Amino acid sequence: MTDKIIQEPPMPPMANADVTFEQLGILPVISDLLARQGIKTPTPIQHQAIPSGIEGKDIVGIAQTGTGKTFAFGLPLLQRLVSFPHARALVVVPTRELAQQVDESLHGVAQALKINTAVLIGGESMNGQMSALRRNPRLVIATPGRLIDHAERRSIQLRAMTMVVLDEADRMLDMGFAPQIRKVMEQVAPKRQTMLFSATMPAPIMSMAHRYMSIPMRIEVAPAGTAARLVEQEVFVTDRKGKLPLLEKLLHEHGGTVLIFTRTKRGATGLCATLRKLGLSSAEIHSNRSQPQRKRALEDFKSGRIRILVATDIAARGIDVDDIELVVNYDLPENAEDYVHRIGRTGRAGKTGKAVSFAFPDERGKVSQIERLIRTTINTTKLVEFDSSAPSGGRHFAPRGGRGRSPVSRGGFRGGRRRP
Fold this sequence. Notes:
- The protein is α/β, with parallel strands linked by helices and 420 residues long.
- The chain folds into two domains: 22-220, P-loop containing nucleotide triphosphate hydrolases (Rossmann fold); 231-410, Rossmann fold, CATH 3.40.50.
- It has 14 helices and 17 strands.
- The strands form three sheets. It has an eight-stranded mixed β-sheet, with helices on both faces. A seven-stranded parallel β-sheet has the order 3-4-2-5-6-1-7, with helices on both faces.
- The two termini are 43 Å apart.
């Protein structure tokens, strides 16, 4: 409905160590359970969203990955399910990995409250999911495609869903799920609570909020499109031959966990194979990998059995690891919003991180788009030439004209100047 507007709340209070979950309205049984898990202080997005969520208000939440938004919507949902025995809740997410992460995060609280849940995702048995739905779950976590499959088979009654969460809504639209989202929102209960969470706020997301929400509260942990504030960002301008030696050097310099993004599935497979030949423990995750393969790669990455994960944008949506030291954009993303999602994988949970991007000289426009979105000028280093005769401890950079000079040539892209 075009007459609906997003309500801008007053300047919200910042989360601090003196505020508890109970002070935000969370039931003692839930806050006690969180405390036993070592979770005692709400994050800023939780501080701002939980009270309105408990009251049943519609919410548009703008927050990056790793800010605690799963509890920001999940705790109010579960508490309202306790308060309203006939209520049902639906959480829609872009990928099966993210669905599993949400289920894993909320499972302990749901179990303690005796709330039955079901996860509906592709790559898993339809019959098994239909069996779970026959047990009348009160919380359903689903990807759009599989949810529509069940709705068309009448194995789920969307009209019973009185609380709906659209998590990572911008990513769902980027992945082409707009038709499925429309179908879902047209079939859920007309009188409902709707919460939408997104890292960015492009026009289609604003339109969705106007159409499907009732005067929602807009909650921003950081302005839409803001890159994670604890992430050091840098762009290296190089050619195709220079990318792999540069990556090798970065991997030798950073001994912690590293997440590498490629633009294509083929690129991820090839790069992962190359890294293994170099003796670097790595795994790949993309849509050509089977569900068991993707699950194993994520588990190995989380546990530290491998320290390097090579991923495409879509497959990386389920990665929920707090201590990723370095994110490498081996290929620049297709759009600036993807850059925000990518680097949001590091610099989480109060820790610092680093994001390094490789760009070709003719990709200046893409970098400029990213800088406009994140409202920041990224430090740019132009690598003129690699010196392949460097000692085995790692290659170093030498500008044209001989060795022994400054190792890098700064100033950005060919023919351009650094932004002031």
